[in-house]
Automatic annotation (TrEMBL):
The lineage of its organism: Bacteria, Bacillati, Actinomycetota, Actinomycetes, Kitasatosporales. Transmembrane segments: none annotated. Belongs to the CdaR family. Residues 283-339 form the PucR C-terminal helix-turn-helix domain. It comes from the Bacteria. This is PucR family transcriptional regulator. Pfam families: GGDEF_2, HTH_30. Residues 115-232 form the CdaR GGDEF-like domain.
């Protein structure tokens, strides 16, 4: 829309204000300033550009320029007041619109990730934010050393990188509970992989978990919960990988699905370690290092800052207390499963 096509009512009373100011040298009245603000708000709500509106005011000022000598300064002062009040009203309306949009976005994200809203209505609202919930989606969650909000530099840095790389691909970036989230169509794994790379760097080495693609309106919350579960799992198991995929760690939920059975296995297999001098933890750490190093004694000893002889002594002690030999393939699976269970259940720090 050009300047000439702008509705004329935004200039209602403008020429009269200029004429009155030029004739008396007065300042604008409170009522006149309020009227300009109101018109500015109306113009913003109608979607008109501020630059075009200012140009229309300046053109009208030239057309209705008062004639009496010495009135130019007063008229210019009035023009300044009118435009300032008009722009203030415009900016107020824009700020309100931004806040309303932010509130609507946050409400939508909360409903999406908690599954609280009617799925049909949720799918309708999702299109406004670039998501089509009839398709499968996957969620990546990044957790750094601090908590992040959407307006913080870290989320903005990651978002700029994604937009620069992929443009508009129906991807939603947001934050939740201090973490960074990326929601993308399930078939666009390259988007989530790039998000993980950027988020890991932007959060100074933070950890990123990626849930599996899940179909339908409820798929986002399922993938999100999977990613959160992976972050919790990584913390319990002290996993070093900066990027973890739930699809690669499905064995752990299987192991913990029957918590009581796992607790029984840990207690029955590793419980005798509690009778050792110094308690069970040092021997449990020995088993963890031994299995994590591929059952290579020299590497396990290096990780524990022990001599190979000291490590061998500990393994023999474990064999004697538990009756299971870590070096024997027939016993290894049971021991390793029990060690994983102990880490998942935070044993022996917590009672089973």
């Amino acid at each position: 829309m050009t300047d000439r096509e702008l509705p004329k009512h935004y200039l209602d009373g403008y020429a009269e204000i200029l004429a009155g100011v030029a004739g008396t040298g007065r300042r604008l009245t409170r009522e006149e300033i309020v009227s300009r603000r109101t018109l500015g708000e109306q113009a913003a709500a109608a979607g008109h550009g501020l630059r075009a509106l200012i140009n229309v005011h300046l053109t009208a000022a030239r057309t209705a320029w008062p004639g009496p000598p010495g009135s130019a300064d007063d008229a210019l002062a009035a023009v300044q007041q009118v435009i300032d009040a008009f722009a203030e009203g415009y900016e107020r309306a824009q700020l309100l619109a931004v806040r309303q949009e932010e509130a609507a976005r946050r409400e939508f994200i909360d409903d999406l990730l908690y599954g609280r809203s009617d799925l049909g209505r949720l799918a309708e609202r999702a299109e406004r934010f670039g998501l089509r919930l009839s398709h499968a989606h996957a969620v990546a969650v990044a957790q750094g050393p601090g908590a992040y909000d959407e307006g913080d530099p870290v989320p903005q840095q990651v978002e700029r990188a994604l937009i620069s790389r992929f443009g508009d691909r129906s991807v939603l970036l947001t934050t939740k509970d201090g973490r960074l989230l990326c929601i993308a169509p399930g078939h666009q794994d390259e988007v989530l992989a790039y998000f993980a790379k950027q988020a890991h760097a932007a959060t100074d080495g933070g950890r990123v978990a990626i849930g599996r693609p899940q179909p339908g309106p409820g798929g986002v919350v399922q993938s999100y919960e999977e990613a959160l579960g992976v972050l919790e799992l990584a913390e319990r198991l002290d996993l070093d990988d900066p990027v973890l995929r739930s699809a690669d760690l499905l064995v752990y939920p299987v192991l913990t699905r029957d918590r009581q059975a796992m607790a029984d296995l840990v207690a029955g297999t590793l419980g005798p370690l509690t009778t050792a001098r110094g308690g069970a933890q040092p021997l449990l750490d020995t088993l963890t290092a031994y299995f994590d190093s591929g059952c290579v004694a020299a590497e396990a000893a290096r990780r524990l800052t022990l001599s190979v002889r000291a490590l061998t002594y500990r393994l023999e002690r474990i064999h004697k207390l538990t009756g299971a030999n870590p070096a024997d393939p027939a016993h290894r699976y049971m021991l390793q499963t029990a060690v994983i269970g102990a880490r998942l259940l935070d044993w022996p720090a917590k009672d089973l």
